[in-house]
Amino acid sequence: MSERVYYNRQMPLAVYRELAAHLQLLDGVSVRLLPQTCSHFDYELSQIEGIAVAVLPTLDPGTQARYEEILEHYGLQHGGWQC
Question: What CATH homologous superfamily does 2-77 map to?
């Protein structure tokens, strides 16, 4: 499995959880939320550092397309991803 980390410093915790729930519905995809590592609290920053997404290299094309659609949707709705 290859793992990639996506983050958006202003995305709310609830949105990260929703994204994780959607991605976990896909066969061959696993996710974990990364805790915030910032030493000070800031209301403008997310409570989550990012989301680590692991994808099987043998993911079928339909699932791969759906995976990319989900990430794109959340990225567009919340100001884009940094990797």
Answer: Ribosomal protein S6/Translation elongation factor EF1B (3.30.70.60)
Q: Alpha-carbon dihedral of residues 49, 33, 46, 13, nearest 10 degrees?
A: 180
Sequential DSSP letters for 24-76: HTSTTEEEEEEEP--SS--TTS-SEEEEEEEE-TT--HHHHHHHHHHHHHHHH
Please tell me the predicted confidence (pLDDT) of residue 39.
78
Residue 20 DSSP class: H
The predicted model scores a pTM of 0.88
Indicate the range of 13-27, 31-45, 66-80 predicted with least confidence.
31-45
* 3-state secondary structure at position 17: helix
Per-residue model confidence as pLDDT tens digits over 26-51: 999 999 999 888 777 777 777 888 99
